[in-house]
Specification:
Elements: H1 2-24, H2 33-58, H3 64-96, H4 101-129, E1 133-140, E2 149-154, H5 165-177, E3 182-186, H6 194-202, E4 213-216, H7 226-235, E5 239-240, E6 244-248, E7 255-259, H8 265-268, H9 275-278, E8 287-290, E9 308-311, H10 322-329, E10 335-338, E11 344-347, E12 364-371
Parallel strand pairs: 1-12, 2-3, 3-4, 4-5, 7-8, 8-9, 9-11
Antiparallel strand pairs: 2-12, 6-7, 10-11
Helix pairs in contact: 1-2, 1-3, 2-3, 3-4, 5-6
Length: 372
């Protein structure tokens, strides 16, 4: 039932965007009819490929090359829709200005060619950006921390589809070069049924750090059998923090690492976040909380006793200008923020991607948090 609801909304959204692109962009281009027909055919093919994407995502049965071709159209239509809105505003402005016909035609052709060029250029750039993972080094001052620590944070990897065993192997190699004290994975690690993710997950055994690897679930784990994912990740000797804490470092020289279930658990009806339970047994030494969604910070009566929260979920917007929409739903989209006098929060932009293998204005990241 959840898939049917999602698929229905997904289809309506992309039908609307496709209609606007055809009506307000392609139909208004002063191109030859033959060229406009080619653009129309390409748009419709792109639309139908996008509609097949959710089926391939949740019921994986296609080879990666075909999955790649089905996932790209989501980003292509989204970016093209955004540029169509810019084109519409530009055309409206042109019509309000008094020009001689020859000059008006020149500007109209320039806007038409510019819009199509911008569509091609932004989509190509977004595809290229998704091929690279950037290292974000962040210095964080933690009150009363006796010993400095280097934490590598990964988030929103979304194993499934294009995020496969090879992707994880290369990611592990990059992390190990950093020689971290510990590795934390702040949710949305798995985005498919566990039987399709095991080969990629097995590569995480090779992560090397002094104090190990820690994981909390994100909202996407709830869609694919949250307990089976927890069980298999635990089997890999990765500690899953389920509303609990663990002490990191030497006695009186380290910090408490806390982890809670995702706030989606409140809608799911199980595996619900419980900060109070996760804080049982901690004392005045520093505490770092792993919570998948930044919005969780707004649901806490107080953040006193929590020095730093590490989150993900937002993907930094992934494809501009989606970051503005994310900001409407989440208090922080990316980076380090001082939330109040007690607590800082860092939001990872995501190590993988969801949907199209595209990023624009928000790179994939491995975060190296240097605590002192």
């Amino acid at each position: 039932m959840n898939f049917i609801i999602f698929f229905s909304i997904f289809t309506l959204l992309f039908t609307f965007q496709t209609f606007i692109i055809k009506k307000r962009l392609i139909n208004k281009l002063e191109f030859k009819n033959h060229n406009k027909k080619i653009l129309t055919y390409f748009l419709y093919i792109t639309f139908f490929a996008a509609i097949f994407y959710p089926i391939a995502r949740y019921y994986p049965f296609v080879p990666n090359w075909l999955y790649f071709m089905l996932s790209l159209p989501i980003g292509v239509i989204f970016l093209t829709f955004g540029i169509t809105l810019i084109y519409e505003i530009s055309s409206f402005s042109l019509n309000k200005i008094t020009f001689k016909e020859k000059r008006r035609n020149f500007f109209k052709r320039s806007i038409d060619v510019g819009a199509v060029s911008l569509i091609v250029g932004t989509n190509a750039k977004a595809i290229d950006n998704a091929k690279h993972i950037e290292l974000e080094k962040v210095d964080v001052k933690i009150k009363n921390l006796a010993t400095p620590f280097n934490i590598v944070q990964l988030s929103d990897i979304h194993i499934g589809g294009l995020i496969d065993k090879l992707f994880i192997k290369n990611l592990v190699d990059k992390v190990n070069l950093l020689k971290p004290d510990l590795v934390v994975i702040t949710g949305d690690l798995v985005d498919t049924k566990i039987e399709h993710a095991k080969a990629a997950l097995d590569e995480l055994r090779n992560l090397k750090s002094i104090y190990g690897t820690y994981f909390i679930v994100g909202n996407h784990e709830y869609f694919h059998g949250v307990q089976s994912i927890i069980d298999y990740v635990s089997f890999l000797d990765i500690k899953v923090l389920e509303n609990e804490n663990i002490y990191i470092g030497e006695k009186e020289k380290g910090f408490y690492l806390l982890g809670v279930y995702d706030r989606f658990g409140n809608r799911f009806g199980d595996y619900q976040p419980d900060l109070e339970k996760s804080m049982i047994g901690i004392n005045k030494e520093p505490s770092i909380l792993l919570a998948h969604q930044p919005k969780y910070i707004e649901e806490l009566e107080s953040t006193k006793g929590i020095d730093l929260i590490l989150s993900g979920h937002t993907h930094g917007g992934q494809i501009f200008p989606f970051n503005f929409l994310v900001k409407l739903q989440q208090p922080y989209v990316k980076g380090l923020h001082k939330h109040n006098e007690f607590t800082q929060i860092y939001v990872n932009k995501g190590t993988g991607f969801w949907g199209p293998p595209m990023r624009l204005g928000a790179s994939s990241e491995i975060t190296l948090l240097k605590l002192s």
